[in-house]
Design goal:
Blueprint: E1 3-4, E2 11-13, E3 17-22, E4 25-32, E5 37-42, E6 48-56, E7 58-63, E8 68-73, E9 76-81, E10 89-93, E11 97-105, H1 106-112, E12 132-137, H2 140-150, H3 159-174, H4 180-185, H5 187-190, H6 192-207, H7 215-222, H8 226-237, H9 241-259, H10 264-270, H11 276-287, H12 291-298
Parallel strand pairs: 2-5
Antiparallel strand pairs: 1-8, 3-4, 4-11, 5-10, 6-9, 6-11, 7-8, 7-10, 9-12
């Protein structure tokens, strides 16, 4: 971490989506789907461990008022801990990049791994006051959990519980001694090429949501069999292709309605419904109310 920071590029300021798992334990997420770099920052004191996962694209960590930087690229992770000084999160997230960060107090972390002091070396008595930096690769099993967090689309009332379970699962996988068990249980995801193809499939249906390809056309386009497309998509995104697309389209529709720039018919067309009645029925299935009533509830 010795590279001088002298970039001049335009940067927009944004904020994390923050979910509190429990006291001293939180998940931060940021999706930069824009075409310019965005900066996100959060003050973190010296009693916290930071686990950063670059799910997509690349991110630059900025340290010491901009004097040093550290890059983290797609499918890589970074663990940071420095009990000697404050270590605020200051990121520059490149265009089309996603980052998930888990921040946990050292006290809480000790309670989780009290039986593992010999294995997790920075918890030992000799190392407890030393700073610690560790980069690593996001395993296929970790990638599943991270994508489930990024693409959360269940009821908001269970979000906190869901994120708590996933946060514990993610830490368990991070410190797992071996991926051998996952190789046996989930051979499909061991092939990183297949994971990349499944992510491409997701990007295709999202970009062409108004007129998506059939499953067979999608499978042909990404170069996988129909069976592997179905199985792989379910493993990574936790849902079938078209169920995932339905939820995505409804979320887009909800945001378009909230913006107030389009009427119900126009929103329906934008997300791929040829008739307003089909769009209204789909929206009601997802949200339990009609688009018109939803708009009225906003005022």
């Amino acid at each position: 971490m010795n590279k001088e920071f002298n970039t001049k590029k335009s940067v927009a300021k944004s904020s994390f989506e923050e979910t509190i798992v429990e006291d001293g334990f939180l998940i931060l997420m940021f999706k930069n789907d824009l075409s310019l770099t965005q900066s996100v920052a959060k003050d973190i004191n010296s009693t916290f461990l930071q686990f950063h996962f670059c799910v997509k694209g690349s991110t630059k960590f900025v340290f010491n008022q901009g004097h040093y930087t550290l890059d983290i690229h797609e499918e890589n992770s970074l663990l940071l801990y420095n009990p000697q000084r404050e270590l605020p999160i200051n990121l520059q997230v490149d265009p089309n990049s996603w980052i998930v960060s888990v921040v946990i107090s050292i006290k809480k972390f000790h309670s989780l791994f009290s039986q593992e002091a010999d294995y997790i070396t920075f918890l030992s008595a000799d190392n407890k006051d030393k700073k610690y930096y560790k980069d690593g690769v996001i395993s296929p099993s970790m990638a599943i959990v991270l994508n489930q967090l990024i693409n959360y689309n269940l009821n908001q009332s269970i979000k906190s519980l869901y994120f708590k379970g996933k946060a514990y699962e993610l830490l368990s996988l991070y410190f797992n001694r071996s991926e051998d068990a996952d190789v046996e249980q989930c051979p499909f995801l061991v092939d990183e090429t297949n994971v990349i193809k499944i992510r491409k499939a997701k990007d295709i249906i999202v970009s062409r949501m108004a007129e998506p390809p059939t499953l067979q056309e999608l499978a042909d386009e990404i170069g996988l069999s129909l069976k592997k497309l179905k199985e792989g998509f379910k493993q990574i995104y936790g849902d079938s292709v078209f169920s995932f697309l339905f939820d995505y389209k409804m979320e887009v529709a909800r945001k378009l309605l909230e913006s107030g720039n389009d009427n119900v018919n126009e929103v329906g067309h934008k997300v791929g419904y040829s008739t307003s009645s089909h769009f209204i029925a789909a929206f009601k299935k997802k949200y339990g109310t009609t688009p018109k009533k939803y708009v009225m509830s906003l005022s």
